[in-house]
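Hi all, long-time lurker, first post. I run a small reading group and we've been trying to get comfortable going from sequence to structure in the token notation. Rather than ask abstract questions, I figured I'd post a concrete chain and ask someone more experienced to write out its structure so we can walk through it together at our next meeting. Sequence below, copied exactly:
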Amino acid sequence: MTDFFSHVSFSGIEARSVARAKLLKTQKDIDIQRLKGTVFCKYAKGVLLTVLFCLASFTIAFSQKPTTPATAAKQDKPGAKPAYVLTVKTKPIINLSLKAEKARVADVAQALSARLKIPVVLGKAQQNKKITVEFSELTLEPALQLLAPQVYVDYVIDTGALNPKPLGIYLFDANQGEPPLTAAVNGTTQSMLIEGNTEEGVEPQTDEAKQKLEQQPLRIVYANNLLTVKAKKQPLPAVLLKIGEEIGIPVEIQDQAITIVDTEISKLPVEDVVRQLSPHIRLYLRADLTRAEKRALRLVLAGQAQATQQNP
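-- Answer (accepted) --
Happy to help. Here is the structure in token form:
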């Protein structure tokens, strides 16, 4: 019996050992599988992080990539060469310097208008025209003639100042015609000269009549764009009104003070004559640069206070 139990106990123990061994093996397999799963997850996460890092690096590198020529063509380069360079000097006289390569006349005109603070008007064909030109420190009129085929400039001459002041520039097409006379010169009032015993357009026929004409206290003759003035102790307003009548332009008398003129001026341009008459006269005129002609537009006798404000 003892042998039997001994045999049976041994077999049971052995069976339990085998079962335990199998259980341990099964648990080991599970642990191994878990370990493998954990390692795989960590590996997968590492791969995912690596991929994300690479993508982020590529994105940053792409955003910092230098602009290619094709891309640069779509953007405005800060250092791009301008189509023109314009320099304007106003003292002691106006002079211009321009370097332009296929530049629009409209752009140059706009810049010139801003610098001189006056309107610059273009003809229809000039608005889309491009020019290539280069000049340095040319005075206003020769410079403007290089920009358009027909050029006009309206000026005001203050006889108390040295240089005329431009009021408007017109860069016109060939054969376009002249701008309106009041385009840049506007007046609100006009004075009139009333004389008695006048014979307009009648030339003296006898020597006695000619001598009598020569002895007149005020005689104005305007011919070939030249003015002759003979005034013997005449009021300045009367002299200017007579000049306006002969030239065919309006005259405005703002100064009521009586200044007596006693002078004789022979065959000079209008601007030179009025400079000799008084420092308080404003003469408006137009220069036709294409035909090299000047045309008086208006005369104003300003008061001394106004003249001082115009010419500080």
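A couple of things your group might point at:
Residues 69 and 188 are 60 Å apart (CA to CA).
The chain has a mean pLDDT of 77.
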